[in-house]
Amino acid sequence: MAKSSFLIMKVLGNILLYVSAALFIFPLYWMITGAFKNQSSSVKIPPDWIPSKITMANFSNLIHEGSIFYWLYNSGFVSVVATVGVVIIASMAGYALTKRKFKGSEFFFTAVLIAMFIPRQITLVPLFTMMRDLGLVNNLASAILPVLTIPFAVFMMKQFSESVPTELLEAGRIDGCSEIGLFFKLFFPIIKPAIGALAIFTFTYAWNDYLWQLIMLSDKTKMTINVGISTLVSEYVANYGLQMAAASLGFIPVFIIFISFQKYFVKGITLGGVKG
């Protein structure tokens, strides 16, 4: 009886998981199939769940217009630079907060925690004023700099840094290793799983950062993919097929990054779960 109940619960659990997975995957399916539909098929009611006639016109129009290449390059540049910067800054902050205790470290970490609870919308005006005074409006640097200060990144790396044995670093100091050497040769390799998880988080965050990039970037050659897609909607008509095609192209780099760092991401989440 108990075995039968267990099997029933297992089957029901699997069904629930498959249904949930289908619900999460459906928007992706709709985006990709919509990229191969013409305008009439995109707005058809009831919709064509499977494209009745596949067309490459949307991709052809995007390539012929040319702006998609600027948008993808800008998004890639912003995301890669921001990811590298966040990984270095956050890992160094985690190292300093856990392995190099200094006066005021607790206050600094408390400030980081408080910053995590500040709604981002509150910071838009002062950030814009700062970027304007620095002359960075309509400059890709304005899309990168705010990402470098994500409080969650410092919090995450500080928590993971707690798992690094202090004795290992002390042994390195006894052997005459410098602080830079300790960080890059001993500390950095140990926290690779955390770095992988942080890299995925930061790259995705920077790639999908629509609101701030919309505020700062107005030149069509400086726009990122998300801002560029918004320009495909005119006052009177929205070409959904063209938008879906651009969104599908914009999805590819994020997917590649996730696949590349997936093993580190899984290890990082697992390690974090064990520590929690």
From TrEMBL:
**Membrane-spanning intervals of the chain:** 12-32, 68-95, 107-128, 140-161, 182-207, 240-261
User: Which positions fall inside the ABC transmembrane type-1 domain?
Assistant: 72-261
Q: From the UniProt record, list the coiled-coil ranges.
A: none
- Localization terms from the record: Cell membrane
Q: What domain of life does the UniProt record list for this protein's source? A: Bacteria
**What UniProt keywords are attached to this protein's entry?**
Cell membrane, Membrane, Transmembrane, Transmembrane helix, Transport
InterPro entries linked to this entry: MetI-like, MetI-like_sf
| Topology versus the membrane | Multi-pass membrane protein
Q: Does the keyword Transport apply?
A: yes
Q: Which family does it belong to?
A: Belongs to the binding-protein-dependent transport system permease family.
Q: What is this protein called?
A: ABC transporter permease subunit
Q: Organism source for this protein?
A: Paenibacillus planticolens
Its taxonomic placement starts with:
Bacteria, Bacillati, Bacillota, Bacilli, Bacillales
